[in-house]
Design brief:
alpha+beta, Multidrug-efflux Transporter Regulator, Chain: A, Domain 2, 3-stranded antiparallel sheet
Length: 77
C-alpha cells in the first residue's frame, strides 16, 4: 500500500510583501546594502531585522517605526 503524504499546514501571519530584503531596505533609504548590514551589526540604528535561515528580512512595520522615530528625532532637534 502506498503511503499518503499530507501537505504540511503553513501558517503565515503576514504576507510576504510585508517583509523586505536587505537590498530592498537599502533601495528604500537610498543607501547601499553594506550600510544596512552595518546598521544591523551596530544594532542601535536602522530598522530591526530578523534572521530566517541564512536570510535577514525586515518587516515593513519595523521600517515604518524606524522612519517615525527618525522623524521625531529631527523634529525635536
Amino acid at each position: 500500500m502506498g503511503r499518503e503524504h499530507a501537505s504540511p499546514q503553513v501558517s503565515v501571519t503576514e504576507p510576504a510583501h510585508l517583509f523586505l530584503t536587505t537590498e530592498e531596505v537599502a533601495a528604500r533609504y537610498r543607501t547601499s546594502p553594506a550600510t544596512v548590514r552595518w546598521w544591523r551589526q551596530v544594532g542601535n540604528y536602522g530598522p530591526k531585522g530578523v534572521k530566517i535561515g541564512r536570510r535577514v528580512l525586515y518587516s515593513l512595520a519595523n521600517c515604518e517605526e524606524f522612519e517615525r522615530q527618525a522623524a521625531e528625532i529631527q523634529a525635536s532637534a
